[in-house]
Amino acid sequence: MISLEIAIAGVMLISLIIYMLTGGADFGGGIWDMFAVGPRAKSQRELIKNAIAPIWEANHVWLIVIVVLLFVAFPLAFATIGTALHIPLSLMLIGIVLRGTAFVFRTYDDQSDTTHTKWSRVFAIASIITPIMLGINLGAVASGTILVDIETGTVATDYFSSWFAPFPIAIGFFTLTLCALTAAVYLTLETEDIALQEDFRLRALIAAISVGIIAGISFLLSAKGAPTIRQGLGNSFWSIPFHILTGITSIAAIYTIWTRYYQFARIFVPIQVSLVILGWGFAQYPYLVAPNLNFSNTAAPDSVLMPVLIIIIVGGVVLAPAFWYLYAVFKGNTH
Fold first, then answer.
1. Distance (Å, whole) CA 163 – CA 176
2. Overall number of domains in the chain
3. The pLDDT of residue 164
4. How crowded is residue 202: how many other Cβ atoms within 10 Å of its Cβ?
5. pLDDT for 298-321, tens place per residue?
6. Residue 126 and residue 198: Cα distance in Å, rounded?
7. Which of 38, 226, 233, 312 has its CB 3.0 to 4.6 Å from that of 222, i.e. a possible disulfide?
8. CA triplet 90, 36, 213: central angle to 5 degrees?
9. Cβ contacts of residue 239 below 8 Å, gap of 6+?
10. 155 phi and psi, to 5 degrees?
């Protein structure tokens, strides 16, 4: 039988997947806003704006779910992460606030070219910084360099060494490319303009190649930068079948983008991203923060976990239909 802490951790992992497929795509839209070039640059930015505008605030619900569950169900891990990773977490949150602020002001502020360009630049830069910081935080949590005294909760790691290192930084850029890939594929189906579809098809292919390259670099760096992840991905009983499945999905994603089967690409790319995050979660198990904070020694008492799980179930019954309705209203007419 699955323990309460594992069940809640599973919800957190699923929430992270959903956040990457929704909020991550929003970040990716900001990335391509930065790199909108050519005679259709204005049309590209307009397409990105129209795709993001109805749903971007709602997508952060999943990040809130992760933070709240970590705080309530695994308080020691929450305190440890919040202390050791204070700087990249703060930069990530600042990026989320700045990109949202810039997105709104770009729409409703004075529409002169100077003002519009200023807010566009803030929106794009924040959209790049935020997923990098998200990936750096995830990489640092898996790196095994965050040390804490379980009895006292004292964090022995300084504010820099756990995240300002090759492996977490590589994961930061890996996350960035995943967001860019997801957004480019989604955007091919947000318009019927063939020229715009071709623009984002090219971007999707570039992003897909970048994902593969940085994934390889990250795996090589994991030998020293994240031994727990390397062990899990390289030597677990499930690792070979998992790598084969991920590889087939990645090839199918690139093939469907190349051949312009965008509807299928929109299926394979999210599966690819989901498998990447699942692989990270499985490889890190049973640790929440490697090397000494696992699910059992950081979990709150069952008297806390059981009500939390009940609230998750009740909340999911309300939240899932609400999100379905939101997407049906604003995205039901996409092609």
1. 16
2. 1
3. 95
4. 12
5. 999 999 999 999 999 999 999 889
6. 26
7. 226
8. 65
9. 232, 233
10. -90, 125
With contact defined as beta carbons under 8 Å apart, do 200 and 193 qualify?
no
Question: 293 in helix, strand or coil?
Answer: strand
Spatial distance between the Cα atoms of 260 and 238, rounded to a whole number of angstroms: 33
CA distance 33 to 199: 12
Q: Which two tokens stand for residue 277?
A: 């995050």
In the structure, what pLDDT confidence band is assigned to residue 332 with cuts at 50, 70 and 90? low
Percent of the chain exceeding pLDDT 90 equals 70
Confidence of residue 333 (pLDDT cuts 50, 70, 90): low
How much is the pLDDT for 245? 96
pLDDT score, position 156: 86
Give 246's Cβ-side CA count (13 Å radius).
Answer: 18
Please name the amino acid found at residue 25: A
Cβ–Cβ < 8 Å for 31, 184 = no
pTM over 0.85: yes
Q: What percent of the chain has pLDDT over 70?
A: 98
Is the pLDDT at 201 greater than 50? The verdict is yes
113 exposure class (CB count in 10 Å sphere: 0-12, 13-18, 19+):
exposed
- Range 235-243 contact pairs with CB under 8 angstroms and sequence separation of 24 or more: 236/282, 236/283, 238/282, 242/275, 242/279, 242/282
**CATH code at 141?**
1.20.1630.10
Residue 40, domain extent: 4-331
Four-point Cα dihedral 177, 181, 183, 188, nearest 10: 160
What pLDDT does residue 335 have?
Answer: 45
Q: Across the chain, which distance is largest between two alpha carbons, in Å?
A: 61
Measured distance CA(76)–CA(94) in Å, rounded? 24
Residue in 48, 200, 64 with CA at minimum distance from that of residue 123: 48
The confidence score (pLDDT) of residue 319 equals 87
- Identify the residue whose tokens are 């802490």: 5
Could you tell me what percentage of the chain is helix, strand and coil, using 3-state DSSP and rounding each to the nearest 5?
Answer: 80, 0, 20
